Amino acid sequence: MRAVPSWAVATAAAAPALLVAGWTVAGARQPPGYDPVRDTISELAGEGATDPWLMGGALVLLGCCYCATAAALHAAGLPSRFLLAVGGVATVALIAFPRPQVGGSPAHGVVATVAVLALSLWPAGTALRLPRRPPDAPRPDTPPVSPGRREAGA
């Protein structure tokens, strides 16, 4: 098993720190009507927010951290790495579909749902192991080898 690079550990550790710092700083910049318990993080980066670039920037960096971690976390397996990367891309995509000041946005709802589901399910993806080809199994794109030319025959 390959070791996880130290930069991947740094991006994994930076993700929750970025999220908390982003919503804390952006929440502190909102007018008195903003309630961090009642209102969503999407409102901090959405239309009508005070300084939406603060939470928007935090979401972009957060999504990049998820994607970088997914690229290096080989021990987790391909299904979980794929889900983590999808969650990272969907987190960045939230900036493209901001929450409107009044009402809802179907596009924002879909992207937020994909992000939450992918980021919630990626640890379970480690249980899904893709079948691996045994080392001595013939590759599907190569012709069969005669018995006399195989390692055992040689």
Automatic annotation (TrEMBL):
InterPro entries: DUF998. The keyword Transmembrane helix applies. Keywords: Membrane, Transmembrane, Transmembrane helix. The keyword rRNA-binding does not apply. The chain crosses the membrane at residues 52-75, 82-98, 110-130. It comes from the Bacteria. Residues 129-154 are annotated as: Disordered. This is DUF998 domain-containing protein. It comes from Micromonospora sp. HUAS YX12.
